[in-house]
Amino acid sequence: MSTLLSYLAYGGIWLLSLLPLRVLYLFSDLLYLLLYYVVRYRRKVVRNNLSGSFPEKGIGEIRKIEKKFYRHLCDVFVEIYALMHLSEQTIRRRCVFKRTDILQRYYDRGKSVIGVTGHLGNWEWMSSYALWTETDIDYLTLYKPIHNRVFDRMMLQIRSRFGAVPMPKNDAFRRLVSNRRAGRLFLAAFIADQTPSAGNLSFWMEFLHRDTAVLLGPERIATQLKLPVISLYMRKIRRGYYKVEFVELCEEPEKLAPGELTRMYMQFLEQQIREHPEYWLWSHKRWKHKREKI
Known about the structure:
The chain has helices at 3-16, 21-39, 43-53, 59-82, 88-94, 101-108, 149-160, 172-181, 217-225, 260-275; strands spanning 95-98, 113-117, 138-143, 164-168, 186-191, 204-207, 210-213, 229-238, 241-250.
């Protein structure tokens, strides 16, 4: 996309994001009809992912989950851009964080924390956590830079609007070490359910009935820096309303066997997905890699 078209698209999104959420959800409804019935966006990927993850469910039940997922995906799309103009009062009312005392106890002891989560609910709204902390910390969120500079700048503005500090994934460890040397506390949040690259398929486990390659990055960082690890469990209460609960996973990950912390987190994520499967990102090509047989 040319720079001019990128700026025009950015301007259009900016103007649309001025609309109230109740109006944006009308766009979401239209987008759902377009993506699901007309464009059929990644329908085959979603169907295969759902069928392989829930072999006990019939095709009728799979289709119900599939349609609910696409409706939710379209809601997430408009909710992300709504962050451009939502007020602090509105986002605090619509995305509520619970059990923040778990983190506060670590901060009070001078400990930074690693947080792991997945593409469940609306992960972008988690960027508002900085509004809920009582301590002056850096809320660091991992992100992959977008090649289009205009949209990369736009997403950085969206993700940092309520105090989060996005950090490029390749600079994550360096940034955390820098914070530690400066005596600056942080919560570093990692979305850890993404598919590893082809050259990073070192850890496999059963996840949703499938042999699955899993990223070890959060575990390695937590172990090397000897930081406690928590999980963020996001529930969708109803359209446009979420609750995020902090759940303690491990205070001393360096004492665990290699891979154990990652296994703990992924099993907890699977439990969440099974409770509300329509809210996970099924359009992602999660199982594109196959383990080589020796």
